[in-house]
Write a structure and sequence with these properties.
Number of domains: 2
Radius of gyration: 25 Å
Structural class: mainly alpha
Oligomer: single chain
Length: about 550
């Protein structure tokens, strides 16, 4: 392990000039603004808050930024679904995104502004890191730019803006680069780098933790010449170091999901996964304006999931595989990742999925197997860079430059969907400032208390709760605990004697009533119960103190 690496293992990585890297980063931020336009023009007042998931993720990022400095040991004991513990584990924790936006949140920026800026940054950084990795592997900036554009701006990412966890793939390509270096040149520092990038990618969400682990395992299996026989002995220590470090670093983020599984049955059945798995037609849906609006391509198959990689990217990836599969270990690695992810995206319809489901416990937390399609598109994006290099080698220098410019422009045109739809965000109503006057541990409840059919309508309450993060009975997430169903059953008749007694039994001190969505008869009946004392109102929201709690 002390010998110098052969030229073919590490010295073939192209050096990066910082000035060019910075210029590429700025370019990807500009492209991210273009593809999500007009979001960048007013990130504090535009939103996708018409979608409950977008509001959920705004709340998650605000909660993590709040809790990591106030009580990090109870990070997962979020303020929703009182009195359940570990409620952050009912969805992705979004720790990396939350930390990226935390300085803005600590400075007083709204959850919506922070979410939107981190969204744009996720697309830009995902493209940028893919660009740098492909440049290091090929020595061509044009190839890097192509792969970066395909990685960041594609059918999947640009149709899932409310799902910010799917827009942060910036550590995936660096993890593959680290694995490649480890396989070619087994060193402890390369094992640590692999652990670093894998942990960072895992901290963007549990889905990408699982997907990246499977991608890395597939990559290793696709390169047996790098670890079979005598080569395994020097590789084993740094590889084991990467596994151990990753496990230790991620354990605090995995255990809450395990505890939630044991306590409230958190998990996904095979039948549930089947409902959220890919159909082959998803890979034919091209949502870009060029295809979807002008040509009508993909409308027939559109069912909410879009995974078409684009004509240009797909052809260049095919060129790379056909020309380099046997001779280039990196191409074999990327091909294996794409094939495995493609098969797993079909969920239980793929015969081996069931065996992996029981043999790889982390897969039991995956409901949307269709999201493996993101890894398929990532593999195609990286392969396309190799394909472009192969193509340009057969062209004169001037023609190669022009061709590269046209191809990079073409993949962006294929993906372009802007201008996007956004709904206006007018901020949290000032009446919620009243909660700053009470103990932050006081339990609150919002009415109407929505049932399962209208579960997503709890999300706006959670956004308002970011003002003080008081524990609340309401909640919206990827999972509903049994206690929520009991709350619905007991609180649907509110206001009546039984429901008010139930609230007092739970220790609720503040009752919020959204008068715009409450039935008129129920609003009138609120005055019949002296335990409810109107404390604050702005004409729409009524804030009641529930005795024996006393509002000052």
């Amino acid at each position: 392990m002390g010998a110098a690496p052969p030229a073919s293992s590490v010295d073939d990585l192209a050096p990066i000039r910082p000035a060019i890297a910075v210029a590429c980063l700025l370019l990807f931020f500009a492209l991210a603004a273009l593809h999500t336009w007009p979001l960048a023009s007013a990130p504090g007042t535009l939103s996708r808050n018409d979608n409950g998931d977008a509001v959920l993720h705004e709340w998650i990022m605000a909660w993590v930024a709040h809790q990591v400095v106030s009580d990090p040991w109870h990070l997962f004991d979020a303020n929703i679904f009182f009195p359940e513990p570990n409620t952050l584990a009912f969805s992705d924790h979004l720790f990396a995104q939350s930390m990226l936006g935390a300085p803005l949140r600590w400075a007083g920026a709204s959850p919506v502004l922070v979410h939107n800026l981190v969204l744009i940054a996720g697309l830009a950084l995902s493209g940028w890191t893919a660009c740098l990795v492909i440049y290091r592997w090929t020595g061509r900036w044009s190839a890097g730019l192509l792969s970066g554009c395909l990685m960041a701006f594609n059918a999947f990412t640009l149709t899932r803006l409310p799902q910010i966890q799917d827009l942060h793939l910036e550590f995936f390509a660096p993890a593959l680069l680290a694995l490649d270096r480890l396989l070619r040149w087994p060193r402890l520092r390369h094992g640590l780098l692999l652990a670093l990038w894998y942990v960072l990618q895992s901290l963007t969400g549990t889905y990408l933790m699982v997907f990246t682990a499977i991608a890395l395992i597939s990559a290793v299996l696709a390169r047996p010449r790098d670890w079979i026989g005598a080569k395994f002995r020097p590789l084993a220590p740094p590889l084991m170091l990467a596994v151990v470090v990753s496990t230790i670093a991620l354990l605090p983020f995995i255990l809450p999901y395990y505890r939630a599984r044991e306590a409230v049955g958190l998990g996904r059945s095979l039948e549930e996964t089947r409902r959220y798995s890919a159909e082959f037609t998803d890979y034919l849906v091209a949502p870009g304006t060029l295809y979807f609006e002008w040509m009508g391509w993909g409308r027939t198959f559109w069912a909410g999931d879009a995974l078409f990689p684009g004509v240009v990217g797909l052809l260049l990836a095919i060129l790379a595989v056909s020309a380099l599969l046997r001779s280039d270990a990196r191409v074999r690695m990327l091909t294996a990742i794409g094939v495995v992810a493609f098969a797993l995206s079909f969920g239980p319809s793929f015969p081996l999925y069931k065996w992996l489901y029981y043999g790889f416990p982390l897969l039991q937390g995956i409901r949307g197997a269709v999201r493996f399609g993101e890894i398929v598109l990532a593999a195609i994006a990286l392969l396309a860079g190799f394909g472009l290099v192969r193509l340009l080698r057969h062209l004169p220098r001037r023609a190669a430059l022009g061709t590269a410019v046209v191809i990079v422009a073409a993949v962006n045109l294929e993906a372009l969907r802007a201008p996007m739809f956004y709904s206006p965000y007018r901020g949290i109503p000032p009446v919620y400032d009243a909660l700053t006057e009470i103990d932050p541990t006081t339990v609150v409840v919002w009415f109407p208390f929505y049932n399962s059919a209208a579960f997503h309508q709890n999300a706006p309450f959670m956004l308002a709760a970011t003002r003080t993060f008081n524990p609340m009975l309401n909640g919206y997430s990827g999972f509903k605990p049994a206690s929520y169903y009991e709350h619905v059953e007991r609180l649907t008749p509110f206001p009546d004697r039984a429901s008010i007694d139930y609230l007092r039994q739970l220790g609720v001190g503040i009752v919020m009533v959204d008068s715009r969505n409450m039935r008129g008869a129920n609003l009138t009946r609120l005055d019949e119960f002296p335990e409810l004392r109107l404390w604050k109102t702005d004409g729409n929201l009524r804030i009641y103190c529930l005795s024996p709690f006393v509002c000052v």
